[in-house]
Amino acid sequence: MHEFSVVQFFPDETYEYVKRFVSAEEAMLAFMHYTSCVGAKIGTTVRVIITDGGDCINMEWIRGKGITFPPEFEQIRKAKEN
């Protein structure tokens, strides 16, 4: 089922849908790309989210904070680093 969208946000609070109505796998690949691309590193991308068909946020990344939702994701990542 193709119900996921990926949105990137810019410093001026505008946003762009970079993927719409794609599979979970495709959304996750796009999410990983947009949270680690040049724009994310230099600050032209400040937030990236994945939403589902009901427009609920399934994953969120914020520049300078990392993955903020779901909160468990960042805790798991930090635990694996130690």
Helix content: 25-40%
> How many helical stretches?
3
Counting DSSP E segments of at least 2 residues, the number of strands comes to 5
Instruction: Give the overall pLDDT as a whole number.
Output: 92
Number of domains: 1
- End-to-end Cα distance, whole Å, is 36 Å
Name the structural class: alpha+beta
- What is the 3D form? globular
Query: What portion of residues belong to β-strands?
Result: 35-45%
Strand order of the largest sheet: 2-1-3-4-5
Radius of gyration: 13 Å
Written as H for each helix and E for each strand, in order along the chain, the element string is: EEHHEEEH
Q: What oligomeric state best describes the polypeptide chains here?
A: single chain
Question: Are there runs of 5+ residues with pLDDT below 50, and where?
Answer: none
Main pleated-sheet profile = 5 strands, antiparallel
